[in-house]
Amino acid sequence: MVTIKDIAKYAGVSHGTVSNVLNHKGNVSTEKILLVEQAAKELGYQRNSQASRLRSGKSENVCIIVPEIDAKMYGKLYAGIEKTLHEKNYTIEILCSEGMPDMESRLLKKALSMQPTAIVLVSSMFKNEENVPDGTMIVMVDRRVKGFPEDSVFVSFDYEQAGKKIAEKCVRDGNKSVALLCENRRYTNNRNFIKGVSEILENEGVYLEVMEATTPMKFNRAFDVLYASDPFDAVITMSREDVENIKTAHNFNFRAELPELYSVVSRDFGFENGNMYEMDYKLMGKHIAEIILKKDAGMSGELTGADEKVPQELIEKGCFPQQRTYRSKTRETLKFLTVKNSTSEAIKRLLPLFREQTGIDVNVVESPYDELRKTVGKMGAASAFDLVRIDMAWMLGEGEQIFREIDLNNGTIRRICSSIFCGIPEEYYSVNGIAYALPLDACVQMLFCRKDLFEDELIKREYYESRRKKLSVPVSFEEYNEIAGFFTRRCNRKSPVNYGTALTYGRSYTAACDLLPRFYAKGGQMPDESGKVKVNTCEMKEAFAGYLRSIRYATKGPHFWWRESANEFSEGGVAMNILFSSYASDMVHNISSKVTGKIIYAEVPGGKPLLGGGSIGITKSTAKEGICLKFLEWLYSDEVADMVTYLGGFICNRNIVNNAEILELYPWIQDIEQMFRKGKRGRKEKNERFDEFAFEDVLGSALISTVSGIADIDEALRDAQKICDRMFN
């Protein structure tokens, strides 16, 4: 077997140098890193990572013990833990006790022998007899177990609340005799669930029979439930598998009437049966992983501050899926004008469901951005459309003209507003304090970087040797340009990619959006404190100069739209990119993407991102306001917002941040509300003549003329200032 000593001899370096390289310590020159890596490859060295961790007395290993390996909720739990910890180079092992305490005791002993960082346990025991060494974290899921250290963590859903909600629905549905199928009531989650169900049903005079079963006998118990001498009106279970067991038992006797089935289930995509109470075990897994990371970092002395304390208990919430009940189907057609983008494409895919539920057809007319701007500009109060989606930059200029005022006291509007992200500013929906629209696919600029490049030890060392500073995600545009230069092959022949960045300046308004965060980062304002629109300033000249430097490190030729830049980044030839968040999904959806799972996201350098996206409003001319409200309520519902976002669009429903499947695909969404709060866009109250879109057209045209060599920075800004004086000042 090849050893570190063999590699050192072959490479002609010291034993310590080899150890530092293999353990990713950054105090080795690039020359020696290359020598060691080449020697290890040629000698066929395979590192025994587990043995290495055991020798150091610390194992970045997490064991998960569950009673059922094929239960969907535990699969989701594992996926949530694994996704988060795998990114931090932890090893995850899942073990199955089959619901038998003796087997679980043996598995626990095996897990402890590996000296893991943590053991996550959905236990079938009532008391632990094993000694847990100091430093091994125990996380009990759903079921408390005696005998574990006092600092063990308990994580569960609120099963008592779940039991109450399911029982209340049972009562509303008219059931008088109910069976509850569960495992041993001594388990914490079962005990709490039974308590919640029985409290409601007993108060309502509904007969309840609790039928317990061990994990191996749950399928047999399904026959007992189904073939009781006095048939039950309804059966409540505690897993999706129990529901399927009852349905399977029913297949053997179709003459028997299948009771109404209610259950707790792990949250999944799609439209769930209204009797299924959803709990997001994947999101719980993510939260458990974050707790483990905090505890592990705290033991390493890497954390400071009271806000990083590890919680001893975490109780999560579940819910029934939103169900929209439409009492009558109205044969009507709505006309909806919108920009053609990922959100409109996703909405169109889901509209057959809306038609099935309501009888209402929605005719979606998609228009390119330029054409939509022209159409909206000519629209006024008379419109052939019932609903229109406009860019938020047009809201101040056009919103009051084409939309009717929204009644904020309307029940439907109140429900929609309660689900929208709190951080979205009023520029999306109001003019002069009056609400005319709802934020639809609001977005904000973010910085995206290639994780595999920024965390590669050899690249980091090369950057340090050439710049004498650490390679990290840039927080200023000066750092951004410096890093972009390092990753541009014509400036650095060792760069693993061709370009440092991709820029979107092919059109005047995209160029302005690319430029303005640099201007705001310099302390510029638009309009300024006096209400004037001033572009011929030191701050703007510096922003122009910085942008021209970025072009040296950008892909050849300008991109005309952010989707093009996103696709360029996803192809793997670019190190960094600044995009509006609504286009970031294209990096994942591109079938040839080379960056999926390799993306770092952060706020734009300088911390002054531009807001983008658009809003939807009901036109003044429509006679179908009630039907429009019905469509909007459907569109903003949790299930539809989830599906639109999952398909690559975005609806401003803040509950999407509680969907682990969405966060796994698009992790930046979890911080999008915070980014909204930092976003900027011009405000009309400082200057009544100011028009955001018109201003961006002027500024972007000046930038393009500079980039193309038609004018230098001073000339371009002098000309732009004259136009701004005439239009706004």
The third-level CATH topology of the largest domain is D-Maltodextrin-Binding Protein, domain 2
* CATH architectural name of the largest domain: 3-Layer(aba) Sandwich
Order of strands side by side in the largest beta sheet?
2-1-3-4-5-11
**Gyration radius over CA:** 30 Å
Mean pLDDT: 87
User: Which CATH top level class of the largest domain fits?
Assistant: Alpha Beta
Distance between the amino and carboxyl termini: 78 Å
Query: How many strand elements?
Result: 23
Using the alpha-carbon principal axes, give the shape: flat
The structural class is alpha/beta
Number of domains: 5
Fraction of residues in β-strands: 15-25%
| Main sheet characteristics | 6 strands, parallel
Tally of DSSP helical segments: 28
What is the helical fraction, as a range of percent?
40-55%
Walk me through the structure.
The protein is of the alpha/beta class and 729 residues long. It has five domains: 44 residues, lambda repressor-like DNA-binding domains (434 Repressor (Amino-terminal Domain)); 129 residues, 3-Layer(aba) Sandwich (Rossmann fold), CATH 3.40.50.2300; 120 residues, Rossmann fold (3-Layer(aba) Sandwich); 161 residues, D-Maltodextrin-Binding Protein, domain 2, CATH 3.40.190; 199 residues, Periplasmic binding protein-like II (D-Maltodextrin-Binding Protein, domain 2). It contains 28 helices and 23 strands. The strands form five sheets. The protein has a six-stranded parallel beta sheet with strand order 2-1-3-4-5-11, sandwiched between helices. Strand 15 and strand 16 form a beta hairpin. It is flat and about 90 Å long. The N and C termini lie far apart (78 Å). About 1% of the residues have low confidence.
